[in-house]
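Tokens for YchJ-like middle NTF2-like domain-containing protein. Go.
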Amino acid sequence: MKVQENGLCPCNSGKAYHKCCKILHDGMKNASNALELMRSRYSAYAKQRAHYIINTTHPKNEEYSNDLPSWFCAINNFMQSTTFEDLKVLDFNEKNNEAFVIFQAVLSLDGQDCSFTERSHFIKENDFWYYESGEIFEQI
């Protein structure tokens, strides 16, 4: 999904990108909750903002890497070959410094459907939300 700065945000909030996730991507504010972080991460993938994905991934995540240049390239390669078509939030549960979001992402990778449903786990540390892990379910 190629999104213009003034176009609708890929996160499906109904807001313009520059008034929605771009504010988080540019570091002007932090996600206020895990749901906002999940939406902004989806949008970051769609907008090819690999640094945001890296900065919001918890070090306990299995894909976390200290080799930032290689990790950045891997994320960028995925972003460039993927079309981000739709995001649907199915459930959101937050308690204290932990949250779970279940969502459906409709994607195509090199023209092949690679849509999925995920239950994401988020952790809040030092007033900042991080994506810790995700459990992928069968395709939509």
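The longest helix spans residues 34-46.
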